[in-house]
Specification:
The protein is of the alpha/beta class. It contains 12 helices and 5 strands. It has helices at about 25-35, 40-45, 50-55, 65-75, 80-90, 95-105, 120-125, 130-135, 140-145, 150-160, 175-185, 195-200, and strands spanning about 10-15, 110-115, 135-140, 165-170, 185-190. Helix 11 (about 175-185) links the parallel strand 4 and strand 5 (about 185-190). The longest helix has 12 residues, at about 25-35. The mean pLDDT is about 95.
């Protein structure tokens, strides 16, 4: 067997949501609609992209505080356990991306870098083995900042002692990829599993 060509990368940073695990927040919003009677689209705009959501992802409020605030905002009577189930059960798995990740993991340290909250992350860690297999995480609610803040990327680099120019960054949001490129990462804007496979192959990263 021919020797592998040395890789230009020493670290791969991966987004989680809508790369490895597709998700749909509107699944939760439709279930909340049945609990409170407010239309799901209105619920979405009340909750997402607002200060409450940002504070939760930045680790400034606890899950219990988030639950209490959502109940108040929606005037909704719901148990904490049911709220957590509805809020979290919105994910599926892109099996082809998981297969690519497993190939990459044979050669490279992988780190999930995600804007997320403790309820979502605890759910995916428990329910999707690929998350546990990757095993290294830099999470917005733990580090207190969200992408594209450079500090969240620096936390991953510091953990592994990696250089910016030796880091590959994969994300489904182009603005985050561009922020990574401006820092010095090699960025891949994820648009689908086939596209990701082609780009990784072109880089010589999928040789087993």
């Amino acid at each position: 067997m021919a020797a592998l060509t040395p890789s230009p990368f020493s670290l791969i940073l991966l987004d989680l949501g809508n790369v490895i695990l597709p998700f749909d927040l509107r699944i939760a919003m439709r279930k909340f609609e049945k609990e409170c009677g407010i239309p799901s689209e209105e619920i979405f705009h009340k909750l997402m992209g607002r200060e409450l959501d940002r504070s939760f992802e930045n680790g400034k409020i606890t899950p219990q505080m988030f639950y209490e605030n959502v109940k108040k905002e929606l005037r909704m009577e719901i148990s904490y356990d049911r709220f957590v189930t509805i809020w979290s059960d919105i994910f599926s798995e892109n099996e082809k991306v998981s297969a690519l990740v497993r190939i990459l993991k044979r050669r490279f340290p992988l780190v999930i870098v995600s804007n997320t909250n403790p309820l979502h992350f605890e759910f995916v860690f428990r329910n999707f083995p690929i998350v546990r297999e990757i095993g290294q995480f830099v999470l917005s609610y733990e580090v207190g900042c969200r992408k594209p803040d450079p500090k969240i990327y620096q936390a991953a680099l510091d953990r592994f002692g990696a250089a910016l120019h030796k880091t590959l960054y994969i994300d489904d949001l182009e603005k985050f990829v561009e922020a990574g490129r401006q820092l010095g990462f090699y960025g891949i804007h994820f648009t689908g599993s086939d596209q990701l496979e082609r780009e990784l192959t072109d880089l010589g990263l999928l040789m087993s």
